[in-house]
Amino acid sequence: MVGRPAVPEVIWARPERAGRGPKPAFSRADIAAAAVRIADAEGLDAVSMRKVAAELGCGTMSLYNYVPRKEDLYELMFDAVSAGYDLPEKPSGDWRADILALAHQARAMMHRHTWVPRLMSPVYGFSPNALAYLEYALSCLDGFDARFGEKMELIAMVNGVITTYVANEIATAERGRSLPWSPEQEQEIRTRYLMSQIATGRYPRMAAGFAEDPGPIDLEGVFDRALGRVLDSFDR
């Protein structure tokens, strides 16, 4: 395949253009933007070198001169959406508040680009915007008395909570859109059935729990509490 390396390489270490010859017709930013448009509209599985080439108006084979592998294309996409973070010039000094604010930005970004949770991997952490995000997150922890490895573990665990939570939100929303009835109608039916089962007396702990807190569940509160418990485990 044209341009495909025989050994592992990092796309960011590969020159975007050769030192000589004509100016390339497209930039990495052009390619990433085209791929992101496809993924946003049709999902990550719809992204292919053929579709991106068609979006750009070039031949599929010529695209390999810019992006040797599909995995490199994913990395370009991840970097492109990571540019959407609004990173202050410097943190506030309250490391918990700063990490939580960053977490809410990450959650919002994943909802804008619902394919991102599938690409959350350390493999895609070497891009310029991903490194800028990580450097800022570490700067938020300047006042947190811990070794570098523990700070990295904290960031990884926070990102894990965000990714898991958002992936569940996205899956729930996608399921709701696929049904011939509204989510509210289904919730009503399922709640009615659940209450009928609890009323049998076979589930006394659940009955006591619902009597204490009948709901509804505050999903925003659950998100913040989950993150808070992660931070509590490090805050000492």
TrEMBL record:
Show the Gene3D superfamilies listed in the entry.
Homeodomain-like, Tetracycline Repressor, domain 2
Alphabetical list of InterPro entries matching this protein: Homeodomain-like_sf, HTH-type_TetR-like_transc_reg, HTH_TetR, Repressor_TetR_C, Tet_transcr_reg_TetR-rel_C_sf
Q: Which residues bind DNA?
A: 48-67
Entry keywords, A to Z? DNA-binding, Transcription, Transcription regulation
Q: Which Pfam families match?
A: TetR_C_1, TetR_N
Q: Does the keyword Ion transport apply?
A: no
Q: Where is the HTH tetR-type domain?
A: 25-85
> Is DNA-binding given among the entry's keywords?
yes
| PANTHER family (UniProt xref) | HTH-TYPE TRANSCRIPTIONAL REGULATOR RUTR, TRANSCRIPTIONAL REGULATORY PROTEIN
Output this protein's name.
AcrR family transcriptional regulator
Gene source species:
Streptomyces clavifer
